[in-house]
Every structure is written in structure tokens, then in C-alpha cells.
Write a structure and sequence with these properties.
The protein is of the alpha/beta class and 273 residues long. The protein has a single domain (5-272), classed as TIM Barrel (Alpha-Beta Barrel). Helix content is 34%, strand content 19%. Strand 2, helix 2 and strand 3 (75-83) form a beta-alpha-beta unit. Helix 4 (131-149) packs parallel to helix 5. The model has no long low-confidence stretch (mean pLDDT 97). Bound molecules: zinc ion (2 copies). One zinc ion (ZN) is lined by residues 8, 10, 81, 232.
């Protein structure tokens, strides 16, 4: 049987809906061999969605306590999903998922996976209404952040598709956008070789496919990048939601093995697909 995990799990310390204990129970029920918590790291731009500064130690303590309680049954990892706008100290965590959700511009902030109307307003203000220019900017910001920060895992590479399901903002096949995404991968792989196959949006916002899209994943494989399956789970019932689709995507891109979070000391293990 395939060994599964999720390195991308939220908690009520950020915008997760299930407790740490409920998430671990769900992971055990799903037969996971490991589980990584990754609440949104402290940042001041959009505090509603991240761990409150004064609660960060509580988050760490609670994950540490769960590690001990469940140590005979499942390896739990203390991680964090860290944005380019965060000042979280990675030394406090066993691993970091690197992500770009926010693109600040002076007093204005654009959240690429946030409210669609607000995103459109920023596209109008910054890019003269051209969504493709926003997408190109996003990919450049992501590639630069991953290259310089060197996280352990890259989160939802084409998150910018969240508000673009019907291609209302831009055409992802537009050569300028696709080239920017591929260039961002070439930049990012210099800082991190592990990309998540993220099924979270399939249950939460009706996406038809995981992040990243098949053409981008093929490019990642061509570059020699590795992959890890992740549910970006906010609700315990969804701990392994759409994993079949995630596995199918990896196989379609030509992958014959993937990484999981390790069962012991090593952060990653390789398992056949
Ligand atoms: Zn995220
Ligand atoms: Zn997340």
C-alpha cells in the first residue's frame, strides 16, 4: 500500500477549522504514516488568517505535545506555511512551506487567492486591468522568494489560478504567462527542489485539478524537481481529499516516485508511486 502523509495542514491558530487532535485522528484513520502541521506564519499584513504573534508559542507547544502523545502511532512534524511578507523565525520549526499569497505595494496589498473583487481592483489599479501582468508579477515574486529564502517545500505554485477558474483574469496558455511560470520554476528550483501537489482547492473552491497544472508539473520534472502530495487541509474530513487525483497528476507528468514526510528523523523519504 502507498505510504501517505500531508505536509500542509492548518489549525485553529490560523484559518483551520479542526483542532490539532482532530487532524491527527483523521490522519490515523486515513492510514497516514506522518503528518505535518503548517499554520500560516505570523505576519502583519492580514493578521486574521495567520497565527497571532502572542499565540505562536502556544501553537508550537501544542504541536510538540501532539508529537509526544502520538509518537508510537504517527510521526508528527512541526512546520509552518511562511509567506514572503512574514517575519517568522524558521529556527522554531522543523520545516517550512514557502508561499506567496500577498503582494504589497506601499499601503496597498493584493492577495492573489483572496476576495475576487478586491483582486480585480488591484489589477485595475496596478496593471491597467491586465490580469496577465498580475500573473507574471506573481510568478516573478514567487520564484525570487523561493530562490532567496530556500524553504523546504514550495506551496501551491500556481495559486494565482484560484480566482481564474474560468480564465476571466488571464489565459494560462498565454505564452507570456506560461513563460513567466516556467521561468519562476527555474528560479525557484535553485532554492528548493520539492514542490507540493496541492489538492486543497479541489475540495474548498471547486478547482478541477490540483496545483500545479500538468504542463507546469511536466516542466518541473524536466528540471529534475521532486514532488510531495499535500491536502492543504483546513477541515479534518478533508485530510486526504482528492489524493487519487493528485497521484494521477504526478503519474501523468511521468513521476514514478514521490516524497513523503519521514517516519523518523529525516524530513523526507522517497516512496514509489
Ligand atoms: Zn497557502
Ligand atoms: Zn495552506
Amino acid at each position: 500500500m502507498l505510504s501517505l502523509c500531508s505536509p500542509h495542514v492548518h489549525t485553529p491558530y490560523c484559518d483551520g477549522q479542526s483542532t490539532i487532535d482532530e487532524m491527527v485522528q483523521a490522519a490515523l484513520d486515513a492510514g497516514f504514516v506522518s503528518l505535518g502541521f503548517s499554520s500560516h506564519a505570523v505576519q502583519d499584513i492580514d493578521p486574521e488568517y495567520c497565527i497571532a504573534r502572542e499565540k505562536e508559542q502556544d501553537y508550537i507547544d501544542e504541536v510538540n505535545a501532539a508529537q509526544k502523545v502520538y509518537e508510537d502511532r504517527i510521526r508528527i512534524w512541526r512546520g509552518i506555511e511562511r509567506d514572503s511578507v512574514s517575519d517568522a523565525d524558521r529556527a522554531r520549526y522543523e520545516y517550512v512551506l514557502g508561499a506567496v499569497h500577498y503582494m504589497p505595494d506601499g499601503e496597498f496589498v493584493m492577495c492573489v487567492d483572496g476576495n475576487a473583487n478586491q483582486l480585480q481592483k488591484e489589477i485595475d489599479r496596478r496593471y491597467g486591468g491586465q490580469g496577465a501582468r498580475m500573473a507574471i508579477d506573481y510568478y516573478q515574486a514567487l520564484g525570487a522568494y523561493i530562490r532567496s529564502y530556500r524553504p523546504d517545500i514550495i506551496a501551491h505554485f500556481d495559486l494565482v489560478m484560484k480566482n481564474n477558474r474560468k480564465h476571466q483574469l488571464f489565459d494560462p496558455q498565454d505564452p507570456a504567462v506560461f513563460d513567466a511560470a516556467r521561468s519562476a520554476m527555474e528560479e525557484a528550483i535553485q532554492g528548493c527542489q520539492v514542490l507540493e501537489i496541492n489538492t486543497g482547492a479541489m475540495v474548498r473552491s471547486g478547482a478541477k485539478e490540483p496545483y500545479p497544472s500538468l504542463p507546469l508539473l511536466k516542466h518541473w520534472r524536466h528540471l529534475g524537481g521532486q514532488v510531495i502530495l499535500a491536502s492543504d487541509c483546513h477541515f479534518a474530513l478533508h485530510i486526504a481529499a482528492c489524493y487519487e487525483e493528485g497521484l494521477a497528476l504526478m503519474r501523468a507528468a511521468g513521476y514514478r516516485e514521490m516524497l513523503i514526510l519521514g517516519r523518523n528523523k529525516e524530513l523526507f523519504e522517497t516512496v514509489p508511486l
